[in-house]
Input
Amino acid sequence: MQVTLNITRPCLYDATAMPDPLSILKFDDKALIPAIIQDADNKQILMFAFMNKLSLDKTVETGLCHYWSRSRGKLWLKGESSGHLQKVRSIKTDCDQDVLLIEVEQAGVACHDGYRSCFYRELSPDKSQWTTLDLPRIDPAKVYG
Amino acid sequence: MQVTLNITRPCLYDATAMPDPLSILKFDDKALIPAIIQDADNKQILMFAFMNKLSLDKTVETGLCHYWSRSRGKLWLKGESSGHLQKVRSIKTDCDQDVLLIEVEQAGVACHDGYRSCFYRELSPDKSQWTTLDLPRIDPAKVYG
Output
């Protein structure tokens, strides 16, 4: 019996041939996508940053949030120097597929000013000033030098 | 007795001379600031959009979210045609003062696709596909025509 293998025909079950689900995401004219970072437990918004495809791939691959620093032009692992890592619990996208919402387990604090969340200022009810809602949990000078 | 009024001297208690607290906010190179919209009650993230100074001023003045449509180049009151208004409960900003976090009471749904939140797609745990988390609450064709 002769068996002919047609090795040029793509295998229907080849995992590597499956489309990358991240390919549906739309990056802006600077090749960035905004990422909203939410505490997976208490639903507090911790921070907002930008990812490029490289930092998103790293985030998905490692399960730890990586961002793209626009000012320094480099990839950064959040918490690399401070230890304040963000472990990914879920990744959502919006109807337009051009924003990410990432739920994380936050180690320590999210904010460089030492607050748990970067959103620690609220407009007062009379709209006359910004009120600080929280106290710093760490001394930024000790963590970031 | 002669009374001289120096009307060119600014009054110390003139409310219009008080600095606008919104002036600390930093708008990007397109004169926009990102706004994260959160359900004030259950802390779900409902949507993400951009405001310019005009739409932010309108939001603060009226207590209803107004945005700047980049595609249409115009101010829009969220819910103007659908009735799905967003009543502002609080406005926060982040450490860099270049992002807004607005807690709202959402009437109806936030998403044009009929879902309560625009963030209705989640990356599956095996990272192979996007899973839809919710069901549409309204028929968008009936609301938006």
User: Anything to note?
Assistant: Residues 4-17 of chain B have pLDDT under 50 and may be disordered.
